[in-house]
Amino acid sequence: MGVMLLFEKTPYASVETVGDFYSRAMLHWLNKNVCLVDAAVDVELHKGHIHHLVNDLNRLTTENRDQIFPLSWGENEEDYWKYVAEVKTWAEKILKEFDFSSNKLSFSASW
Predict the structure, then answer these.
(1) How far apart are CA 7 and CA 51, in angstroms?
(2) Residue 20 CB burial class (10 angstroms; 0-12, 13-18, ≥19)
(3) Is the pLDDT assigned to residue 91 strictly greater than 60?
(4) Using CA atoms, how far apart are residues 54 and 62, in angstroms rounded to an integer?
């Protein structure tokens, strides 16, 4: 089963240009599982993947924030952290609001 998600197109650095581990892992997960496009996309979400994403985002925003800002974002650090916070909010919302009684689920959402 797939998940129907609707996103606004969001600019973000490519995996190849992000210099820190957590951003690279986060963007790899997003590129693989949740294409950020301006149309609805069918994707499969696994609860474990989202838990890992939230855990990485928690570490990214609390433990290492001053050390891992990726150079590829240039002077635009404020936008980078805003983007990270939005992804974290989205992932936490999915974990909170949807039933993962099976490993996969279907829903329609627009945030």
Answers:
(1) 20
(2) middle
(3) yes
(4) 12
